[in-house]
Amino acid sequence: MSREKRDPLARRKERHVQPGARSRAMHAMAARAAMGRFVLQGCVDCGAVTYPPRDVCPRCWGELRWADHGRGARVLSVTTIRVSTDLYFRGQLPWRMGTVALDAGPVALAHLHAGLTAGDQAEMRLMLDRGGNAALFALPAGKEPDMSDRQWREFVVPVKDCTILVSDARGAIGRALVQALHAAGAGHIVAGLAPPARIADLSDSLLGMERVQPIPLDLTDPVMVAECISKIPGPLDIVINTARLVRGGGVSADGNLVEQRRMLDVAVLGLMRLVQASAPLLQGRPSAAFVDILSAQALAGDAAFAGYAAGEAARHALLQSFRHEMRATGVRVLSVFTGPSDDEDHQSVPPPKVAPARLAREIITALETGREVSCVGDVAVDAMDRWLADPALYIRERNL
Amino acid sequence: MTAMDPILAGLVAGIASQRLRAVDLTNTLSPDFPVIVLPSEFGQCEPFRMETVSRYDGNGPAWYWNNISMNEHTGTHFDAPAHWITGRDVPNGTVDEVRPEDFIHPAVVIDISREAAADEDFILTRAFLDDWEARNGPIPPRHWILLRSDWSKRVGTVSYLNLREDGAHSPGPDATAMRFLVHDRDCVGLGVETVGTDAGQAAHFDEPLPAHSILHGNGRFGLQCLTNLDQLPAFGALVMAMPLKIKGGSGSPLRVIALTV
């Protein structure tokens, strides 16, 4: 890969995002879109399915409820926008949109994948735009989206040819991720290695691969974080935070405070150090993302891993704030929830566990489908379902 | 009476005239300086950390200062007798209670750099010390024993801690050498360039960790992560090693200097 070169005298390109103001109903749609769902409102009284989101049924003024629907659609008409007063779209023109007849009923305005014309069958995706709002995108039915499609790329974070920092490439998850990103064509992978360095690091075949740059990185040390960032050649596109220290222990007993403190330092302040050092660089990029891996224990606490779960919950909260801060910049902040991973950190936990390679694959999928919140593995999927359905009950069930 | 005592005046004049050199035996305390690594079932040593409180900015427009944190045994550091279980009942065994006279002692420098270069697990034995004395003269009492291994030249590389899958590999003494130095030569303590006074593999010795065990059990001290020992003569250097006065502390990072002609 030849590194991206830029005219040093050119004025910095300002990045804009799609207009942000939306109704409360539209935010409800975006919250579901963030998890990769395709949802529409249906009327409880007359059964009509409606789009765009509304507060009451436009036909009978009945109550509307969100439900998942089939993604099928047919393109009715296509138009190309050549003039816009919106700062974001002015930078993207010309831009193709069309009306689509959703199999679920409504006719909607959608962004189009290249090549789609009137009469084509389409598969709909409910995406988040750069400003974090829900938007309908029509893909050719039965085909994988083309990652080089200019309009699609505005809604996803392509991995190919990007420069990616993996904050901890020593653990099983980080190693699997370096491998998967390399296979997916990442341009340059910066692999953080927490000290102490081992003699074996010098002959590690994974770290010795072309396009992989091992670098000392311990998120508890602000100096090391700054030095790591300073040694990345060229612009940084994606940061994936795999650093974690997993230790068991409760609150009133078995909690070794020295370990718990370090655990929280890695999980909570470590995230903030990594974010503060990398976010300014990500903001200048056309398609940037920060990915954090969260344990599903963040949702409800865990008596056997009390301090660890507290750190995960704190990170979950920090990511909400970070996401808010990044809305105006277009940098995507992705949360990937997982159950216990099948590694040395979770030897005491019975299966089902998530294979690190699977987690790595799902992180790349989350980036390349622009999914803000993902749940990987049965444990995390079940945790999220139960938490969304009844958080108070789920917290009791988890901590009986 | 305003004149300084002639003994002190001689020292001051010796430093001022540069007849006496002050050699800094201290490694720079930095976040990336390696700390000792114990097997994972044990608690671990925290490395040095520094976070800026202000640097002529909104948090302090005219001043610069940092919060720092570390283990008592991070960087160039002093081990007090209470560091080891054998020294738990030694009088004045914590770092705040060490007598100030003990901060200033002469030193004997024993060069094992050639042996350590040839064998990273080189063990200093009584036999080696006997031979050393035959060639250099007897080790006088109440001296620091400084082991020059040139290990400090590895700082900044992976071979300083030298961690392999079977643990760390670095030179150090065995129990015969330690008993000889403590009981027969009445040493003040042992100073080394490696991350611990004991060898990297010393946990596996028949008498495990003999330097820590024998030194501290007899009220002697340790100095670790020293540097510039290659600039000192075998006899005649004066070491000044003053740990922080930490209440009940087991050791302390410190600045160590040697005066020598």
Structural description of this entry:
Chain A has helices spanning 24-33, 87-90, 150-153, 172-183, 222-230, 257-282, 306-326, 356-368, 378-389, 391-398, and strands at residues 39-43, 49-50, 64-68, 72-81, 95-102, 107-112, 121-128, 134-140, 163-166, 188-193, 212-216, 238-241, 289-295, 332-338, 373-376. Chain A has 400 residues and is α/β, with parallel strands linked by helices. Chain A folds into two domains: 24-152, no CATH class; 163-398, NAD(P)-binding Rossmann-like Domain (Rossmann fold, 3-Layer(aba) Sandwich). In chain A, the strands form three sheets. A seven-stranded parallel β-sheet of chain A has the order 11-10-9-12-13-14-15, with helices on both faces. Chain A has a five-stranded mixed beta barrel with strand order 4-5-6-8-7. Chain A is globular and about 65 Å long. Chain A starts with 23 loop residues before the first helix and ends with a helix. In chain B, the strands form four sheets. Chain B has a nine-stranded mixed β-sheet with strand order 1-15-13-5-7-11-12-4-14, with helices on one face. A two-stranded antiparallel sheet of chain B has the order 2-3. Chain B has a two-stranded parallel sheet with strand order 6-10. Chain B is globular and about 60 Å long. In chain B, 39% of the residues are buried. The chains are: A alpha/beta (400), B alpha/beta (261). Chains A and B meet through helix 5 and helix 6 of A and strand 2 and strand 8 of B.
